């Protein structure tokens, strides 16, 4: 058990000894005069506190990730490297990104621009640069209320084009060859007795969970930090935190025996990198999930363990007929996701148990169907903001057609409508065996409007949610009316408007 730890900010060594275990990174930065990271919403919603974190991807390769400093505690960064916008200033030469942003004839306030430069820094400073259009737009988690994003995007685009994205090095050396982004196991006790554990194996994590029955598990910490439990201002009582971040087996995406095994501590970003090419539903869901900063931290297991009614991931995994593996010190059990979800905001996880893996069938068995366009899928989300907002209603649809053009399999899964994510069994039954066409689609739309015990809250009424359940289905049908021919019906998507070409790494089959 350590009473001190080291971490690095802008290449300089810092020590965390003597600091409260629940102290936030953002507070630390600001108290140590690294004020480029701003304290605005304090809950991951605005991106003003963005910094770059040296992390590892699902193949344990070092990568730079933009994260919200307000969503990290200091012990979470023990042994890690952080870069702030200060690292782009003060050198002998102006950083190319800073130069491009200052010359783009955009009025930007000092409150937001450092966050933007960090969000763009994730793209510019990562050594692996590919210039391909992708759905993961940068900086959509950075809120600007004054002028607009366009000139800033254009400046980055120009810069990347100018450099032809060919330099396989980190421009400012944020990611050096000595970085591995991997996290050693670690344990810290602060001066008042709060404990922070970062075990290296699942068994170790389970043992700690048994030894500290009142401890709190944390993975990415996005939900944990939003509830402000760790902030010194919340005067949280003494506690033990067990972080799953360095349990390597929980951070991997692997293919085995016809199934994809997704570790519970895999982030939404890593899930996208590993499986977006295989599962269009995952690609579409990830592009609407939170912001880059949130996706870079939020984990699959954290999302499922919370079982929130408006989760974007749960309907997608329900549609993919996912299973989950739960571990305790004695045994492992495998459950269908539907069995795992025990009710509104509830799961069947018991004390001493950890969600270990999510299992999804490889789509290869139906590859021929997919090639001929007979496996239809789509994810849709209605939210107040296009990005970084929770779903009012979201839906994941998967419809398989046989040779005769009849529906052989249908899964219609919704989030946000009711108190928990649900499948529309009645509509699925209507579809199964029916000839794919407007007649059955209409019947299903009518059925969907009456399927759910919808709820009203300050975002939307139950009537609106029920209506949206039917409308999202109509949109899916309109887009997939002719199998094999996708016809988007949305003319106003932000992705279509922005001229941006995003950086994206692709991960081959593991
Ligand atoms: C600004 C913002 C935007 C968001 N946008 C979206 C969105 O668009 N769509 C969406 O679906 N969600 C969204 N979320 C919610 C949140 O990001 C997700 O639910 C996230 O996936 C939680 O994962 P985490 O690793 O951060 O969880 P943590 O905060 O680390 O943990 C959450 C809970 O899960 C438990 N837990 C974590 N891992 C395990 C495990 N392996 N076994 C057992 N228990 C575990 C923890 O004990 C804790 O109770 C948003 C959150 C914020 C703050
Ligand atoms: S202060 Fe708004 S995201 Fe951190
Ligand atoms: S740049 Fe700060 S509000 Fe727009």
Provide the descriptors you would attach to this structure in a database record.
disordered C terminus, five-stranded mixed beta sheet, 510 residues, binds FE2/S2 (inorganic) cluster, binds flavin-adenine dinucleotide, Enolase-like, domain 1, alpha+beta, Uridine Diphospho-n-acetylenolpyruvylglucosamine Reductase, domain 3, Ubiquitin-like (UB roll), five-stranded antiparallel beta sheet
Short overview:
The chain is an alpha+beta fold and 510 residues long.
Task: Please explain how this structure is put together.
The radius of gyration is 23 Å and the shape is globular. The strands form five sheets. A five-stranded mixed β-sheet has the order 2-1-5-3-4. Strands 10-11-16-12-13 form a five-stranded antiparallel β-sheet. A four-stranded mixed β-sheet has the order 6-7-9-8, with helices on one face. The protein folds into three domains: 1-179, Beta-grasp domain (Ubiquitin-like (UB roll)); 250-365, Uridine Diphospho-n-acetylenolpyruvylglucosamine Reductase, domain 3, CATH 3.30.465; 370-484, CO dehydrogenase flavoprotein, C-terminal domain (Enolase-like, domain 1, 2-Layer Sandwich), CATH 3.30.390.50. It is an alpha+beta fold and 510 residues long. Helix content is 27%, strand content 20%. The chain is built from 17 helices and 20 strands. It binds flavin-adenine dinucleotide (FAD) and FE2/S2 (inorganic) cluster (FES) (2 copies). Flavin-adenine dinucleotide (FAD) binds next to β8, α6, α10 and β16.
